[in-house]
Amino acid sequence: MTKDTRGFSLIELLIVIAIILIIAAIAIPNLLRSRMAANQASAVASLRTLNTSEATYSTTYNIGYASQLAYLGPGTGASPSSTGAGLVDSVLANGTKSGYTFALTATAQDANGNTTAYTITAAPSTPGTTGQNYYFTDQTGVIRQNTTGAAGSGDSPIGG
């Protein structure tokens, strides 16, 4: 009797599967860390965009800063207004983007009720998975971070 030797043996297939599993075990944690770093970079870029948008809003409408994130987003009408300035996209205006949740708070108002100071915070939607750092900024434009909890005005500014 002659034995047909075409194809792969069970041992050869198991070895290939083991190699694939080893490569996956090495690659998946690196992929997750890369995704977290990308989310954090996106959060910082979004905070810079929001600071710029607040400055633009203040000079355009001459009524102080926007008191809500939604005011910086696209409005319902054809032309921009103080309640729909169109300075940021609708995703960011809704307060969630790239694994982070953003919150804008008006912290001071003048006698006319116009916002003269604000704070914006960015927190990971799922800490440790979508991001590690918490961020804070205000009308000064300085972005600060904290790795253990909500960031505030006393935390260290980020570099660059």
Could you explain how this protein is built, in words?
The longest helix is centred in the N-terminal third of the chain and has 52 residues, at 10-61. The protein has three helices and six strands; from the N terminus they run αααββββββ. It has one domain. A hairpin with a 5-residue loop joins strand 2 (100-109) and strand 3. With 160 residues, the protein is of the alpha+beta class. The chain is elongated. A six-stranded antiparallel beta sheet has the order 1-2-3-4-5-6.
**Measured distance between first and last alpha carbons:** 76 Å
What is the typical, i.e. mean, pLDDT? 93
Task: Report the principal-axis shape.
Answer: elongated
- Tally of discrete structural domains: 1
Helix-strand makeup class: alpha+beta
The main β sheet shows up as: 6 strands, antiparallel
The strands making up the biggest β-sheet line up spatially as 1-2-3-4-5-6
Q: Figure out the total of helices.
A: 3
| Beta fraction | 15-25%
Q: What's the β-strand tally?
A: 6
What ranges have pLDDT less than 50 throughout 5 or more consecutive residues?
none
Order of helices and strands: HHHEEEEEE
**C-alpha Rg, in Å?**
24 Å
Helical amount among residues, as a percent range?
25-40%
What does this entry show, briefly?
With 160 residues, the protein is an alpha+beta fold. It has one domain.
Keywords:
160 residues, alpha+beta, 6-stranded antiparallel sheet, 3 helices, 38% helix, 20% strand, elongated
